[in-house]
Write a structure and sequence with these properties.
Elements lengths: L34 H13 L3 E6 L3 E3 L5 E2 L5 H14 L7 E3 L19 E3 H11 L2 H11 L1 H10 L6 E2 L16 E3 L1 H13 L3 H10 L32 E9 L2 E9 L3 E9 L5 H20 L6
Helix pairs in contact: 1-8, 2-4, 2-5, 2-7, 3-4
Length: 304
């Protein structure tokens, strides 16, 4: 099914406000973020038991270029590659995919508990985005191929962010050490391109991410409506902040990347990695960073 041309891409590094339209971002003006807010973020990073990386392009940044394990946040690269292929007509979202024994992986998801073994590409995308289904992820990676996902990441300008392997539970010494690694700068730039882009693949990816059921990291301390999946047509958003995101959790890793809207729109990435056993402290750091991220779209921070 050809739903549009995915060739004209707003890259992660060159996200722009491409105009006006119903349900799409309108204001690409700078957020109101004070020097004190940036200082608080630096203090938060310094107190984190590991590395806290935060980026809202041009507005907030700490450790933006440090390459960190992404856990399931890296699935957003797969979803972006898939959305581009669906939008260009290279893939039909109605194409059925039969699950193979090798696709099944424990951890997050539902497919290991369901009896059906045949799902459409579109179904698998929603399962990957909404409940971070590891089995759905592996089936899509098998269908697209890692090389295709890597090529899409390169085309989107992601210099230091890649998917390296399928999901494995457990991950053994013979396997690549991480499913995916990347930087907050790369991922926030990608999310900003989705926030302000007008291409069909960007709208499709945003819709999938809006289905995410995990709001326990960046949005956790923010007033938001977790069941509102429709991008707001008018800003400011009446229910606090609107969020479409993808999270990742693993031993020593907590991460959240997404699109956030209130008085304006923005893309963000918050990545935290530390020693095993520090996960609760990492969660607290990511949630506090989420307050700083929200200030870039609400104007809650005072002027410097």
């Amino acid at each position: 099914m050809n739903t549009g041309d995915a060739g004209d891409v707003v890259s992660a590094g060159d996200a722009v406000n491409a105009g006006d339209g119903g349900g799409l971002p309108r204001d690409a003006g700078p957020g109101d973020v004070s020097g004190a807010a940036r200082g608080s973020l630096a203090e938060l990073a310094a107190s984190c038991p590991g590395t806290l990386a935060v980026c809202v392009p041009g507005l907030l940044g700490v450790n933006e270029d440090v390459v960190l394990p992404l856990a399931s946040t890296g699935k957003v690269l797969l979803l972006a590659a898939l959305a581009r292929d669906v939008a260009s007509g290279a893939l039909d979202p109605a194409e059925p995919v039969a699950l193979l024994d090798e696709d099944y992986a424990g951890g997050s998801g539902l497919l290991t508990e369901l009896s059906a073994r045949r799902w459409t590409i579109g179904d698998l995308a929603v399962l990957t985005a909404s409940v971070s289904d590891n089995t759905a992820t592996n089936a899509l990676l098998r269908r697209l191929g890692l090389a295709r996902v890597d090529a899409a990441a390169g085309a989107l300008g992601l210099a230091g962010t890649r998917v390296h392997d399928r999901i494995r539970e457990p991950r053994l010494p013979a396997h690549p050490p991480a499913f995916a690694t990347g930087t907050a700068r790369d991922l926030a730039g990608l999310m900003r391109s989705v926030a302000y882009g007008r291409e069909p693949w960007q709208r499709l990816l945003l819709g999938w991410m809006a289905c995410n059921t995990d709001r326990g990291l960046v949005p956790a301390l923010l007033p938001h409506e977790p069941e509102d999946r429709e991008p707001p047509r008018d800003l400011p958003y009446a229910a606090g902040v609107w969020v479409a995101n993808k999270t990742g959790t693993d031993a020593g890793t907590r991460a959240d990347v997404g699109v956030i809207a209130a008085a304006r729109w923005e893309g963000y990435a918050v990545l935290a990695h530390g020693p095993e056993g520090s996960e609760q402290a990492l969660v607290r750091a990511v949630r506090q960073a989420g307050v700083a991220v929200a200030a870039t779209v609400t104007g809650a921070a005072a002027r410097a």
